[in-house]
Amino acid sequence: MRYKTIGTGGFAGAVAIAIVLAIIYYITGGSGPVSGNMGLCLPSPDQWPIPVEWSWIINMALIVGSGTALIFFNKGYSLIQNADMVFPSMFVILTATNPWAGGQLDSSSLMVIINIICLATIFSCYKSRNATQEVFFVATMLGVGSMFQYAFLFFIPAYLLIALMMKCLHFKEIIAFGMGVVAPYWIAVGMGLVPLDQFHVPQFTNLFENLSSGSDLLIGALNIGLTALVGIILALNNAVKLYAGNTRRRLYNNAIAVIGLICIAGMALDFHNLPTYLATFYMTAAMQIANTFALWNIPKSRYWIGSVTAVYVILFLIMIF
After folding, report:
1. Fewer beta carbons under 10 A from the terminal one: N or C of the chain?
2. Which residues pair with 203 in a beta bridge?
3. Over the stretch 1-30, which tens digit does the pLDDT of each residue have?
4. Distance CA 162, CA 205 (A)
5. Is the pLDDT of residue 177 over 60?
6. What are the CA-CA distances from residue 290 to residues 3, 84, 90, 237 (Å)?
7. Residue 167 vs residues 114, 170, 292, 296: alpha-carbon distances, Å
8. 124-154 pLDDT per residue, tens
9. Spatial separation of the C-alpha atoms in residues 8 and 12, rounded to whole Å
């Protein structure tokens, strides 16, 4: 029997909830934490001269677009056995219910898209004897990303490890990866697009200066901490089933888990830049939730998914009001 928990209707419902929450947040005049100008030589997205209204719209469009991309990503590489819409739906819900990620445009929504593209590219090289072009592309994406958000640099060792896991990392791929990271800077400086004096140390800001009360920080931390704890527990439980299953699917899931661990470490150690990691972090957590329903055949799964959604929506409303 084909696994089906919520179907396309569930994803449409998740998108509708996300849009409603974004409208509520905008109407109430909410403003989440800002990261500051965290690019090495270019302004971060939250510093771009975009009208407030368009900032909300673009950010929500990127979140929904990322959720849609996850549908094709999941189907293309069979990340989750008998794929349903839980993965993209939970990603949209988790991201939209945290105003620090689902509010105005910042690096978070761009980072998750770049990570999805990079993961799909690396996955396509599984056991490839010549993956120089793909590895170069991934490194270039990370290099370009680091120009407007230095946190992309932390994913460099992660993708080298993932390439090794995919058995496509050889000496020439390592050289190609290094060239890919350097190439955007070489071109930007060489063509005079970015003057050398434009390189700067990231400008850290008080992450929570725009919060209306200390309870916002408490609820936001509860949201992230709860997701991280549950995500790790589910990942460990899912690993038992995945270990006995398809090897390629297990490697794909392990690779995304590596990205999740990088996000958790980044949020803990790079605290003032925490919002940047959120959307990607929620993407990895959503995968663990989806795998749990797919692998363990949980009864009345729709009710469980609805309950999880309700908890996060309530946390969102507490932060807003």
Report:
1. N
2. 37
3. 445 678 889 999 999 999 999 999 888 876
4. 33
5. yes
6. 11, 8, 8, 13
7. 22, 8, 27, 29
8. 999 999 999 999 999 999 999 999 999 999 9
9. 6
